[in-house]
Amino acid sequence: MPFLSAVFAPVQLNDSEQVVIYAPEYLQRVSDLINSTDKSVLNNYMILTVVRKTASSLDHRFQDAQDKFLEVMYGIKKSCTPRWKLCVSDTDSALGFALGAMFVKATFAEDSKKIAEEMITQIKMAFEDSLQYVGWMDVETRKAAKEKADAIYNMIGYPKFIMDSKELDKVFNDYTVVSDLYFQNVMQYYNFSARVTADQLRKAPNREQWSMTPPTVNAYYSPTKNEMVFPAGILQAPFYTRTWPKALNFGGIGVVMGHELTHAFDDEGREYDKEGNLRPWWNNASIEAFKKQTECMVEQYGNYSINREAMNGKHTLGENIADNGGLKAAYKAYESWTRKHGEEEVLPSLGLTNQQLFFVGFAQVWCSVRTPESSHEGMITDPHSPSRFRVIGTVSNSQEFSKHFSCPAGSPMNPARKCELW
């Protein structure tokens, strides 16, 4: 309680305060580890954590030391990121919604939000249509799953308040900036952010509250709110461009939309109902069947390796379910779009059909290069599979991919056993 009281100050806590603990076993093991670890090691760890958190805000002596540390941990050589990019990144971290207003005005076309909403609707319909073919799920649970998908709330582009300067000022009214004192500004932002968080205690959840700033190139699904959020930052190339062929857009941002939607039904998201409550809403038979179905993916991804280090298929299960479900829903939505609007013109010189282009659009968003050290760190801590296997693992489970690329039966990209949940 003393720790929580310090974290939530100046909000007053008492011994009757309800605390939700999502991972009691983890916290117990961490507590045991702390109690059994030499206090000097704990002190060093806490000091290092503070130094790492603040080093980028200090002068070159600290940044040079951090560069050496990062080289050992991730194989990253001395950072050559332009200073303007660092400044923009720091501004987004602290004043992201103010920066977001500028970003939206400069990059986000007025009809982009409408187009994204239409795509999400099409993908949601495709996902719900697929539910009727999920043979391992009983009728009652399947009906409840459709209701949950129907109830998912979409937040696209940016929150409305950022385009109103008066409303934006209210958000940062309690944050004071001091000229020429960068480090002090950073520390004051941490305090300001903590006060904002503490002030939300005991208040009803605000469904309109964003956990990502508009320029962020990412998206998320919130199980406790049953909502999906797609900031303006990800509604850009290579995920989406309003003038691109629909095949590329469905293969890019469309799969991301399907991915976030499927998170509502992965190994963790499925435990929350359509209102965001953590409660049992599946029949026991469907729960057991779901677990049985997931064994295929756990085994499949567990057989992949990076630099001779095997992946942990159980650790990445939730994201793998979302990748596979997202690709399937997005492709089905694209097929539906072509039936309604007719086939698009084929891009010249590529020698690819539009169906093949869809899968290329999906694959290219995961093009990346990582050092061996960074790959090792990702294998241990990242719930996502390495980018290579987010592509290979997912498309090798796709009947449509095998069909359109004429992969021989039994080949690595068209195995006899394909893993499928949704």
From TrEMBL:
Protein name, UniProt field: Endothelin-converting enzyme 1
Role noted for this protein: Converts big endothelin-1 to endothelin-1.
One GO cellular component term: plasma membrane
Keywords, sorted A to Z: Cell membrane, Disulfide bond, Glycoprotein, Hydrolase, Membrane, Metal-binding, Metalloprotease, Protease, Signal-anchor, Transmembrane, Transmembrane helix, Zinc
Catalytic activity field: Hydrolysis of the 21-Trp-|-Val-22 bond in big endothelin to form endothelin 1
Every Peptidase M13 C-terminal domain range: 218-421
Cofactors required: Zn(2+)
Family: Belongs to the peptidase M13 family.
Topology term for the membrane: Single-pass type II membrane protein
Domain Peptidase M13 N-terminal: 3-159
Quaternary structure note: Homodimer; disulfide-linked. Interacts with PPP1R16B. Interacts with TSPAN8; this interaction recruits the endothelin converting enzyme ECE1 to tetraspanin-enriched microdomains and positively modulates its enzymatic activity.
Localization in the cell: Cell membrane
EC number: 3.4.24.71
GO biological process: peptide hormone processing
PROSITE patterns: NEPRILYSIN
InterPro entries recorded: MetalloPept_cat_dom_sf, Peptidase_M13, Peptidase_M13_C, Peptidase_M13_dom_2, Peptidase_M13_N
Molecular-function GO term, any one: metal ion binding
